[in-house]
Amino acid sequence: MPYLEEYRALSASEGFTATIEVSALKHKHLKTLLSTLFEFLPEGESIYPLNQITNIDQRFFISELIREKVFHTMGDEVPYSVTVRVEEMEERKDGTLYIRAVILTFAERYKKMIIGAHARKIKEIGATVRKELELINNRHVYVDLTVKVDTEWEKSFE
């Protein structure tokens, strides 16, 4: 470890409150790191409600999750010019979270790729999104996905 001595000298000369050598590969000293971090964190009021797990909007989170699953499912064939618009979210009477979203791309050939033969790709995307959202929300989720071509969608970000 060529930098270990430099690291130790720097941490000693700068007067750090604590230094912890960790190994992410071997998972060494991670508990020590966490306990030390919590020891020095200041107490204070919660910034967000306790049931809020992120600072981003739920629709944005879901649209990015769908987009991620498009990329993951498509592999090397992935059309990177894809965005997702969540058009409807509602809780149904039976407690199911219903989500209707549109996957937008700028060319018909990409639409066909995302849908796939016999709609296999879009079904796989929907199933992986549903499973992850059900884990997060601890309830049944229905994901209704469609794919549309919109040659102008990228201009809305300018």
UniProtKB/TrEMBL annotation:
Lineage, broadest ranks: Bacteria, Candidatus Magasanikiibacteriota
A molecular-function term among this protein's GO annotations: GTP binding
Domain of life: Bacteria
Xref: CDD domains: KH-II_Era
Record keywords: RNA-binding
One GO location term (cellular component): cytosol
Stated name of the protein: GTPase Era
Pfam families named in the record: KH_2
GO biological process: ribosomal small subunit assembly
